[in-house]
Amino acid sequence: MNQTRSNGNAIEIESLVKVYKGAVRALDGIDLVVPAGSVFGLLGPNGAGKTTAVKIATTLARPTSGTVRVAGNDVVRQATQVRNAIGVVGQTSGVDVNLTGRENLRLQGLIRSIHGRELKHRVNELLDQFGLADSAKRVARNYSGGMQRRLDIATALVHRPQVLFLDEPTTGLDPEVRTEMWQEIERLTHEEGLTILLTTHYLEEADQLAAKLAILDRGKVVAKGSPEELKEELEGDTVHVELREDAPDGTIRAALESVQGIRQLDHDVHCLRARVEHGARAVPLVLQALEAKGLAVDSVAVSRPSLDDVYMRYTGREFARADEEGARKQNPSGEEKR
Amino acid sequence: MSELLSHSLTMTDRDLRRLARQPWWIVVTLVQPVIYILLFGPLFKSITTIPGFHYHSYIQFLAPGVVVMTAFFSGGWNGMATIDDLNRGVVDRLLVSPLRRSAFFIGHVVQTSVSIVIQAAIIVVIAYGLGAHFANGALGLLVMFTAAILLGGSLNAVSNGLALIFRREETLIATLNVFMLPLTFLSSAFMQQSLIPHWMQVAARFNPLNWAVEASRSAVNSGTDWGSVGTHLGLLAGLLAVCMAFAMSSVRIYQRSI
């Protein structure tokens, strides 16, 4: 379709900046290219700017500066073409709970000028595909959380979009439903050749689903690549230590200062995480150093690099902690969530 | 143009289905007007003895005012559903689709118009039962319903526009209360225009609710001044156009703020 014009790229983002009123810089110059036909993960803690990026790429919000092209069209100047080419599953569902499953699907079709038999056929197909055929006549208000989410995705697919945006599709879902959702997303890329831009703040979700990903932190892209590439860039291991009692301020850092081979250290009062060149060699040194300062150790573990370590390397913070911080700072102007 | 028509039909169909699933909403908005009709009628019975009051029964005088007020509030509170839709992501989903923005508001206005017709019909029947007469037959009622729809539709567009700008129920409720209640009383809905204080008469002249009350009352009582009815309906049609334009600009304000 339009993909010749966009060199096979489904999404091209260039120096994208978004500044909210009150000078909140939600996006601080982002460059990204999402090749067609793959799942691209946008990973970052709460408040990193993921949802803002999706809102701009889906024509909902306007960029302060920079350009975004989706399916070859500019999101500001050719908004209608972009809207015809995309499906969007937002963070807050989008299912009209006062309508039935079938009515929700029909509405999206009619808006996109799909009528009559063609629409009926497509709606039935999606109801079957997403296991909603038996509940098609029920008002969506009475659907379970998982069913609403499935209807949400089905609704975004009625017009067979080229690019599907999934903004934190599994947030707030039960673990089983989450696994179900992952299978569905994998099926969509493999069988239907869709390009999917997935935002998530679950590291394991990005690891599992995304062929390529970008890590977003405080409005900037701090790393890009496939999950494997990103992990391979990290040589060495991670040593994770839990202390028996809380350590007084500064003692952990002071204890480990002299230990050779520690590249990066992140800690709070009762646990620490150190990136080291060689796990087996570092463990005894770390333990000795801690005991020397009178810090008793409860448990110690060595692990191969995970995406969490990738995140820590690029941002200097542990993911879970950045996520909490982001959630706390969630600005009142509604940057990430209303 | 055909796309606008088909989108408007789609949104109207959606909004009417939603209305049909919440028929209690029509009943809820009828409670207040029915109380007005049932209690204000007898309560203010002696108004008819004031020198210069032209009507023999207060119900006869009050009925068009209650029809118009009901339409006014019915339209005015419609934005509450839009706030709910905003919180649920329904509005965002529509905005990232190629839906014509005006169709979104047209659907709401038509939905409000349908509930206004149902409510007005019920009020007319009750008033008739209490002894009110409607002159000019179907034409008089048609004018009254049209005035009510034009006013209710305008309020509906304003309310939905404000919903997109405020995005919060509390702010919307507070704002609507601040101007809806005074507009109700700065009119001849409850008292004949020539009998209210001069400054109120002047204020009423600029009050759209009063335009609708005057047009309706004149149309359903004998001695109709058709010229004035036409002028008032024209003003109300202009108001609806202005309110729709405001609603359309609220979409841009909303999209700029997120």
Radius of gyration of chain A: 23 Å
Helix coverage percent of residues of chain A? 25-40%
> Within the CATH hierarchy, at the fold level, what is the topology of the largest domain in chain A?
Rossmann fold
Counting copies of identical and different chains, the oligomeric state is heterodimer
Question: Greatest chain-chain interface?
Answer: A-B, 34 and 28 residues
Task: Give a description of the structure.
- The complex is a heterodimer of chains A (338) and B (258).
- With 338 residues, chain A is α/β, with parallel strands linked by helices.
- Chain A folds into two domains: 2-231, P-loop containing nucleotide triphosphate hydrolases (Rossmann fold), CATH 3.40.50; 235-304, YebC, transcriptional regulation domain (Alpha-Beta Plaits, 2-Layer Sandwich).
- Chain A is built from twelve helices and 14 strands.
- In chain A, the strands form three sheets. Chain A has a six-stranded mixed beta sheet, with helices on both faces. A four-stranded antiparallel beta sheet of chain A has the order 2-1-4-5, covered by helices on one side. A four-stranded antiparallel beta sheet of chain A has the order 12-13-11-14, with helices on both faces.
- In chain A, strand 9 and strand 10 form a beta hairpin.
- The longest helix of chain A is centred in the middle third of the chain and has 18 residues, at 175-192.
- Chain B has one domain.
- Chain B has helices at 2-21, 24-43, 58-76, 79-87, 90-95, 101-129, 137-166, 169-185, 198-205, 208-220, 226-257.
- The chains are: A alpha/beta (338), B mainly alpha (258).
- Chain A binds chain B through residues 21, 55, 58-62, 80, 83-84, 86, 88, 90-99, 103, 107-108, 110-113, 139, 155, 333-334, 338, and chain B through 3, 6-7, 10, 14, 17-18, 21-22, 85-90, 92-99, 167, 255-258.
Task: Describe the structure concisely for a colleague.
Chain A has 338 residues and is an alpha/beta fold. Chain A contains 12 helices and 14 strands. In chain A, the strands form 3 sheets. Chain A has a 6-stranded mixed sheet with strand order 6-7-8-3-9-10, sandwiched between helices. Chain A has a 4-stranded antiparallel sheet with strand order 2-1-4-5, with helices on one face. Chain A has a 4-stranded antiparallel sheet with strand order 12-13-11-14, sandwiched between helices.
